[in-house]
Amino acid sequence: xxxxxxxxxxxxxxxxxxxxxxxxxxxxxxxxxxxxxxxxxxxxxxxxxxxxxxxxxxxxxxxxxxxxxxxxxxxxxxxxxxxxxxxxxxxxxxxxxxxxxxxxxxxxxxxxxxxxxxxxxxxxxxxxxxxxxxxxxxxxxxxxxxxxxxxxxxxxxxxxxxxxxxxxxxxxxxxxxxxxxxxxxxxxxxxxxxxxxxxxxxxxxxxxxxxxxxxxxxxxxxxxxxxxxxxxxxxxxxxxxxxxxxxxxxxxxxxxxxxxxxxxxxxx
Length: 268
Fold this sequence. Notes:
alpha+beta; Tubby Protein, Chain A; twelve-stranded antiparallel beta barrel
């Protein structure tokens, strides 16, 4: 009979440590890849955005009345709610707790890989609702808009948002870098759970009869509405709006939150 040869087990290769190998990084949803030259232009990729304010330090705010810096997550509703941007307020403790919603602030909007695309500056313009506010220009709230430090033109002035005097409804005007009014935002007479402000086109000095977009404050849940000032907003951009104009409209959204919804938890 033929002699049977015993099968020898194959030697196993033991992986060796390679210092050049890196652990895989988690996948994070970001804006489409752009260079600094078209970083701000990435806003043109979105017809609408969902803005969710994070409840930061809600217990301290509710119990002690101490304000925290606002922070917002900005989501793309067309992709199932993926977060694409992060906005963060930068202000002093003294301003937040002495001036409340009238406080001055800087706010930056960054991509998820921490590239700054827009910066907002709100100077102190007095408290709203004073007896002379209807005739005092200093009481009208203003937000100045600049391109972010990581764009092709860092610090470039993009325009500003200005509150207008109105008797019954909130009203704002948006101006471009050449001080031309490009949009007007007008709210409804009375609010509800889903309060809507309408965007009207003002290019060329003529106001459109129909709204070309909306900014809507949406119901964020019983707990958030009663115990925090963390609100949810939805903005639909005008179809022809440029990236710079979309940055202006986003700045108007943040100003509206500060003026009308910032101190909800204290009132409740």
